User: Which sequence fits this backbone?
């Protein structure tokens, strides 16, 4: 009979712990701020051979980046995503040109982790496994994200193995 109250107490503790993390609040690991995907594609055009990260500082620059990446694709441009450059930093992450399909970039976490003056964005850096059958086509995956401005002077982009894929020092 005493096992039932212990189970109930355990469930209440689990529920309490699960509710303790709200977006944009401090935790033992630092502050978490929400990320918003503005654009994501596996065919971003462009001919950059190496990965790159870029801080986008205005809507004209964002439109130019989308024109450069998608403008060569049958003349179809996606609408320029809405971004508030007064309150958000906008970051373009490009994987660089790849020789086949099977490559991609995704957010590993929908929050950036802020601490020690840095905002950390964690990605899934997807590459086909050796020997995988893939389509023979040039690809160039990219991801454009917005994150609220805050108490940090640098943005660090890492993959799931914690390999740094790019850094941006903020003005």
Assistant:
């Amino acid at each position: 009979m005493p096992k039932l109250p212990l189970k109930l107490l355990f469930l209440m503790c689990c529920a309490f712990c699960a509710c303790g993390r709200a977006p944009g609040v401090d935790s033992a690991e630092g502050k978490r701020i929400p990320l918003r995907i503005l654009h994501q594609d596996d065919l971003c055009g462009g001919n950059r051979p190496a990965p790159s990260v870029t801080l986008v500082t205005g809507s004209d620059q964002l439109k130019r980046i989308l024109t450069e990446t998608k403008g060569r694709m049958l003349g179809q441009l996606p609408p320029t995503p809405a971004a508030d450059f007064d309150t958000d930093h906008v970051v373009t992450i490009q994987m660089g040109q790849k020789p086949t399909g099977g490559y991609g970039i995704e957010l590993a976490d929908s929050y950036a982790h802020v601490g020690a003056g840095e905002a950390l964005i964690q990605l899934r850096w997807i590459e086909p496994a050796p020997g995988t059958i893939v389509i023979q086509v040039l690809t160039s995956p990219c991801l454009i994200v917005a994150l609220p401005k805050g108490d940090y002077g640098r943005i660090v982009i890492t993959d799931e193995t914690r390999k740094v894929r790019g850094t941006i020092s903020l003005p």
Q: What stands out?
A: The first strand starts at residue 26 and ends at 27.
